Amino acid sequence: MANRHLSRTIAMQTLYQWDFNNKEEADLDKLLEYNLQEFAPGFKDEGFARHLIDGVLKNKKEIDELIRKYATEWPIEQITIIDRNILRIGIYELKFDPEIPSKVAINEAIEVAKTYGGESSGKFVNGVLGAIYKEMEKKGEIKE
Asked: Could you tell me the pTM of the whole model?
């Protein structure tokens, strides 16, 4: 598994646990450290998982608004916790992280969704991120 892909998986797991446990932000450092030790002992990601988590939390309000706008059939509270947090990471990378190319953000989110989400998670994540991508394309905001 590529380093950044593994970091995205660790970030998703950490955000999943945080979300599942009623968003107690004080526990995030402990959750991240635990997940790094449990799922990737000895792995050094140079802080990329933490960067993703911090980026999601910093932009959470706008990210959740985008989920509401582009996943109109699903109230955000009814989206599975896994899919919701995969979307949050994907939208953060797509819209807010200037270092990640747009297509990489989408492809990585889809792969994580296929691996850890339900049967239709990959298609769902692809649909939401694809709609955001099209809007960004119209505005000239695509990152190569």
From this structure: 0.94
The per-residue pLDDT for range 45-95, each reduced to its tens digit, is 889 999 999 999 999 999 999 999 999 899 999 999 999 999 999 999 999
Q: Give the whole-angstrom CA distance, residue 130 versus residue 70.
A: 9
* 87 contacts: CB under 8 Å, gap ≥ 6: 63, 67, 71, 79, 109, 125, 128, 129
Give the integer Cα–Cα distance in Å for 120 and 20.
21
From residue 17, alpha-carbon distances to 34, 71, 96, 140 in Å are 11, 22, 23, 35
In whole angstroms, what is the distance from residue 40 CA to residue 43 CA? 5
Please name which of 56, 4, 6, 2 lies closest in space to residue 28, comparing C-alpha atoms: 56
∠ CA 112-20-132, nearest 5°, is 45
Sign, CA dihedral 74-21-113-109, equals positive
Q: Give the tens place of pLDDT for each residue, 9-21.
A: 999 999 999 998 8
Q: What distance lies between CA 7 and its chain's CA centroid?
A: 11
Query: Which token pair is 76?
Result: 């955000």
